[in-house]
Amino acid sequence: MTQERNSDLTPVPCMLMRGGTSRGPFFLDSELPDDPRLRDKVLLAAMGSPDKRQIDGLGGAHPLTSKVGIVRASTTPGVDLDFLFAQLQPDQDTVDTTPNCGNMLAAVLPFALERGLLPVADGTTTARVLTLNTGMQCDVTVRTPGGKLQYTGGARIDGVPGTAAPITIDFLDTAGSVCPSLLPTGRVLDDVDGIAATLIDNGMPMVLVRAADLGVTGYESVADLNANDTLKARLEALRLGAGPLMGLGDVTSKSYPKMCLVAAPRAGGSVTTRCFIPHVCHEAIGVLAAVTVATACVLEGSVTQGIAAVPPGLVKTVSVEHPTGEFSVELELDKDNPQRVARAALLRTARPIMRGEVLVSQDIWKGK
Known about the structure:
It is a single chain. The protein is α+β, with helices and mostly antiparallel strands and 368 residues long. The protein has 2 domains: 9-166 and 350-361, Diaminopimelate Epimerase, Chain A, domain 1 (Roll), CATH 3.10.310; 190-344, Diaminopimelate Epimerase, Chain A, domain 1, CATH 3.10.310. It has helices spanning 36-47, 102-105, 108-114, 222-226, 229-245, 287-298; strands at 9-19, 22-28, 67-73, 81-88, 95-96, 123-131, 136-144, 167-171, 190-192, 195-201, 205-210, 258-263, 271-276, 315-322, 325-334, 337-348, 350-361. The longest helix is centred in the middle third of the chain and has 17 residues, at 229-245.
């Protein structure tokens, strides 16, 4: 894939992919530097960070389009693929490989099949993926009729125009992905600086607070919330206070925990959300953030109590409303302990946008 060099730039093979409502380049682990520090320098150069427009790289000037996927065949028994997610920021020189990203996760198996890491089955292809960031495993299934990847189809996810082939993700164990446990304080409800909050991690460390407790409705537009400096300052203070309580330490420079305002549903769903990632209001909601919010909705005594409309039964579909639509999560509760979520499953879509090479200065890396 790599062409002969004819300049002082190093070509690095990659595939620009949309995964769910996120976008970024995917790389084979073997085609990046082995040294994590040098790898991060290459990723920053490839994305054009730090620069708020990312004008000199592949980044899209937004956290949702400043993401990177790194994939390899796994050596872990029972696992097919290893996935390392990296969150970059447009105007910062940070590469955060601590949290998961369920949206980019949707593109892992298509990328691996495109690059020949696994054989393609006839009908559907399923692979077990280990997210190296947190040790989480999941089964991802894509459509492969006739042994060929199918990207077109009738599945629609809010936040992405048009329709595409469905990709199903069945999470095997998401509780305490980064924090010590699902409820890191041991409580379903905490007081953080005078505000009632649920501190929870079922795939994504999150702080859930009632929008009304912060003087907003939870139905505001993304633009209005991003322009509300008073609210954002209050959310950041709560985030910094929650970090140590969640076993995360000083989170000043970390991209987690995510902050989420919750309110009663108003479009037929289960709960309304406005999530911050962590300083910018999300135009939709992240996959694992949706799983975590949905989990809070089924835990008695959380901040969603009296707000969320949750169906009965051990298997529940929780519809999480967000600024551009809704995100449905299927939760299966443990029949012996209804406060425990045994399984979480959801649907995403993904597709490759471009394949080729991203060019970085040889002053950064001369390549392999």
